[in-house]
Amino acid sequence: MTSISQSDSVFYFSIQAPYKQCEVLYVATMPDVVMVSESGLSVQVPTNRLRQFVTSDGIKGRFRMIVDANKKIKSFERLA
């Protein structure tokens, strides 16, 4: 797990999408998706951060994204 510093922002997402909905993650003209975090904030997430979690069933689980003070993503990970 990635360490979190005081200046980092942490966002949690719960995702449950069938494979058909995940196909949009592979469209070259859509480099990002906007997701609503569990805290209610809209957050732009690069599609390449989500692709690694897509299976033949789609994508599901609870995820955590850590962003540093410069708005650079430090990690995007599925939580157990």
Automatic annotation (TrEMBL):
Pfam families, per database record: DUF2835 (PF11197)
InterPro entries: DUF2835 (IPR021363)
Protein name stated in the entry: DUF2835 family protein
